[in-house]
């Protein structure tokens, strides 16, 4: 029987290593000097934010110490778990079988390397971490007496700490990294340091973790490449009309209002998963708003401006482009929140040009806004406003970091291990290219949104908000409504979005898709993935709705296509961009979408 071969150990080339170290040292010196210059005076808002997080943990500690018996019980439970782990590890070391005390969740990819199970030492490290993480989080969650907001904040940042301290994130406790280090003679760590410095340089002093190979993608060439023309633009948006793909189209055009927290082409990544192209193929004249990536010149732009220069301007432009005054609308995430605000405004003005609306993962009732509420308290909002007012906008990287923290293991630490510890280049992935293509938020608009929606929840209150001198009330919206939410959404929790089913004044259809905020929405029928849930009844309790729903395999897209046909009108000859009164300005996807915060 052949002996198993040990991995080949590479002896580092001292000359090449010296060159690499010299290059890294030069790059580091330049980055440190640039960082110090940018940070002169310090970031007061960040310091204030950290102080308030620290205060939350101080309160948690004080309440925990007030009940020493409960704390001792938790400690005893942890010790018992460790005793079981030591006993079973000893059994393994003696060659006996031993069931694990704790195992990672099925979706946890951190411990996928076989050594985490096969090697007794690494199995012990893994289980020790999982036991401690479970104990720490459960102990924090069981502390009594804290208000709900403080409890959520403590729980969220405890999880951030737990995720950061995973043994997979360190060289000496990650078997895959150790193996790579031995086999490459440490070249992986040198390459990883180069990757780290490159990301710092790309982020202009802030760490902008590379999630994909950015050179493999070009907006307008292999993503956001559905043919069309920009037919209208103003200072906040460009309006794209897509070329028809059928000989006839429905009479009423379809307008998509995407979020401006990210760029519109999440709905047009590639032909195979483009909702834009698929809707064109169903015979719709598709228009989409491409929001500007604002700078300090647009600092004073408000929520009203986004409504006026966004959907209202687009509806007027569509009539000029097609001759049709009646349309159907789609609003995605914050674009859906703006769409609901717009329809409420139009209802008060007696304007019924929108004949149906599709809301994609849209919050209008912010009573339970999910984990993003961790960042929305008075102290953090005041600090954020101070920062925004000093530069005129919220930096796109700050917003991207916030969203990445909601799924830190997948969107932060997996790349730390791959890029910096293993020294690998990230895999080309269109979705992660889009995720890294950050956008800024105008100071006035973003402050209004956070305070009036997240903090005060005024949109859901009758006459709680006034737009263009008009008090709005979402219950006055009679437009037929299709609502799509996703079951594993970490940004707009489906039970919170469901609350709007009890609010709108017109007929409502609610559909719940499997997966999350992005994958559940961008799920073409051809992918044959996931499923969705249907229920014609709309009880007040979302759990009751789900209990009575039937599960349908595959994409929700055909369900919407069938529903919207009732409002799409008869077929007419296909319309080409430029057929109407609007002269095309430039080919899709236009120039606004190509402005990047980080190159």
Task: Provide a quick synopsis of the model.
This protein is 44% helix and 12% strand.
Overall description:
By secondary structure, this protein is of the alpha/beta class. It is built from 19 helices and 17 strands. The protein has helices spanning 14-38, 44-65, 68-93, 115-118, 120-141, 148-164, 175-184, 187-202, 275-281, 303-322, 334-348, 378-391, 396-405, 408-421, 430-436, 443-455, 494-498, 542-547, 557-568; strands at residues 228-233, 237-242, 248-250, 254-257, 286-291, 327-332, 354-360, 393-394, 441-442, 465-467, 470-472, 481-486, 508-513, 531-534, 550-553, 571-573, 586-587. β12 (481-486), α17 (494-498) and β13 (508-513) form a beta-alpha-beta unit. It is globular, with a radius of gyration of 27 Å.
Oligomeric status: single chain
Number of helices: 19
Inertia-based shape: globular
Major β-sheet, in short? 11 strands, mixed
CATH architecture of the largest domain: 3-Layer(aba) Sandwich
| Order of the strands making up the biggest sheet | 15-14-13-12-7-6-4-5-2-1-17
Give me the CATH superfamily of the largest domain: Alpha/Beta hydrolase fold, catalytic domain
CATH class of the largest domain: Alpha Beta
Strand content: 5-15%
Mean pLDDT across every amino acid position: 88
The helix content, as a percent range, equals: 40-55%
> N- to C-terminal separation?
55 Å
How big is the Rg? 27 Å
Say how many strands there are.
17
Structural classification:
alpha/beta
Here the CATH topology of the largest domain equals Rossmann fold
């Amino acid at each position: 029987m052949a002996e198993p071969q040990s991995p080949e150990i590479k002896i580092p080339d001292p000359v090449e290593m010296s060159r690499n170290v010299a290059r890294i040292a030069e790059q580091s010196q330049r980055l440190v000097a640039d960082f110090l210059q940018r940070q002169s005076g310090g970031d007061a808002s960040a310091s204030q934010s950290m102080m308030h997080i620290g205060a939350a943990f101080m309160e948690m500690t004080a309440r925990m110490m007030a009940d020493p018996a409960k704390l001792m019980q938790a400690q005893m439970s942890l010790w018992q778990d460790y005793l079981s782990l030591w006993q079973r590890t000893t059994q393994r070391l003696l060659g006996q079988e031993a069931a694990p005390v704790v195992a990672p969740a099925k979706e946890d990819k951190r411990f996928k390397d076989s050594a985490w199970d096969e090697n007794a030492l690494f199995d012990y490290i893994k289980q020790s971490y999982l036991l401690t993480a479970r104990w720490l989080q459960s102990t924090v969650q069981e502390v009594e007496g804290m208000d709900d907001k403080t409890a959520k904040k403590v729980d969220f940042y405890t999880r951030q700490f737990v995720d950061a301290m995973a043994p997979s994130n360190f060289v000496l406790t990650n078997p895959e990294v150790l193996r790579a280090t031995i086999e490459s003679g440490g070249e992986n760590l040198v390459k990883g340091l180069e990757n780290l410095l490159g990301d710092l340089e790309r982020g202009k002093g802030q760490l902008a973790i590379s999630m994909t190979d950015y050179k493999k993608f070009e907006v307008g060439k292999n993503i956001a490449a559905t043919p069309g023309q920009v037919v209208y633009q103003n200072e906040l948006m460009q309006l794209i009309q897509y070329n028809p793909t059928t000989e006839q189209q429905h009479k009423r055009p379809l307008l998509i209002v995407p979020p401006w927290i990210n760029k519109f082409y999440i709905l047009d990544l590639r032909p195979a998963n483009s909702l834009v192209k698929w809707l064109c193929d169903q015979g719709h004249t598709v228009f989409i708003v491409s929001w500007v990536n604002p700078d300090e010149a647009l600092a004073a732009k408000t929520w009203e401006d986004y409504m006026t220069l966004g959907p209202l301007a687009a509806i007027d432009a569509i009539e000029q482009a097609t001759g049709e005054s009646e349309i159907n609308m789609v609003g995605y995430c914050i674009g859906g929140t703006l769409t609901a605000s717009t329809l409420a405004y139009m209802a008060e003005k007696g304007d019924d040009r929108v004949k149906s609306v599709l809301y994609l993962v849209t919050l209008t009732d912010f009573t339970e806004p999910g984990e993003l509420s961790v960042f929305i308290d008075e102290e953090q909002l005041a600090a954020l406003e101070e920062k925004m007012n000093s530069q005129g906008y919220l930096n796109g990287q700050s917003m991207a970091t916030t969203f990445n923290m909601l799924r830190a293991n997948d969107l932060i630490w997996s790349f730390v291990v791959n890029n910096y510890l293993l020294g690998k280049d990230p895999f080309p992935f269109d979705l992660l290219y889009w995720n890294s293509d950050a956008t800024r938020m105008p100071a006035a608009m973003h402050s209004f949104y956070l305070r009036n929606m997240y903090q005060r929840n005024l949109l859901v209150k009758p006459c709680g908000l006034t737009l263009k001198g008009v008090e709005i009330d979402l219950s006055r919206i009679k437009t037929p409504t299709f609502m799509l939410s996703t079951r594993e959404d970490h940004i707009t929790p489906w039970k919170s979005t469901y609350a709007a089913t009890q609010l709108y004044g017109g007929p409502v259809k609610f559909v719940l898709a499997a997966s999350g905020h992005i994958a559940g929405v961008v799920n073409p029928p051809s992918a044959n993935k996931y499923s969705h849930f249907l229920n014609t009844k709309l009880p007040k309790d979302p759990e009751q709705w789900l209990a009575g729903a039937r599960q349908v395999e595959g994409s929700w897209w055909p369900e919407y296509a069938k529903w919207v046909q009732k409002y799409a009108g008869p077929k007419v000859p296909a319309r080409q961009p430029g057929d109407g009164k609007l002269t095309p300005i430039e080919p899709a996807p236009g120039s606004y979408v190509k402005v990047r915060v980080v190159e």
